[in-house]
Amino acid sequence: MPKGQVLGYARVSSADQHTDRQRDSITGFSVREYGRLDTLYIDKASGKNMKRPQYLEMDRFARAGDTIVIHSPDRLARSLKDLISQLDDWRERDIEVRFVTQPM
User: Fold this and answer.
1) CB-CB contact of 46 with 12 (8 Å)
2) Would you say 6 and 37 are in contact if contact means Cβ atoms under 8 Å apart?
3) Ramachandran region of residue 39, left (φ > 0), alpha (ψ -120 to 50) or beta?
4) Which residues, other chains included, contact 52 with Cβ-Cβ below 8 Å and sequence gap of 6+?
5) What is the model's pTM?
6) How many Å apart are CA 104 and CA 98, to the nearest integer?
7) Residue 10 and residue 93: Cα distance in Å, rounded?
8) Residue 75: is its pLDDT beyond 80?
9) What are the pLDDT digits (tens) for 37-60?
């Protein structure tokens, strides 16, 4: 069990796309693995950069011991550089990241 909160993050590229599949996979995974999902953050914004409102809110909220569950790496970042940078930052802050499609 995680020491802190279990946070989920979902992103689609445009307002007319649906997050249902990601929301269901994140919730199901979190409940199976941790028994709960405390908060789910959802952005309807391009992945071209990391300046997305709900992502930024989640990043500000996340604390050491928290776990962040994301459907797949491309939902977090489109560029490999941004992905690695964010994962390194969370690792340094003692925040665990789990991708539903690529369990570690």
Assistant:
1) no
2) yes
3) beta
4) 11, 43, 45
5) 0.91
6) 7
7) 21
8) yes
9) 999 999 988 777 788 999 999 999
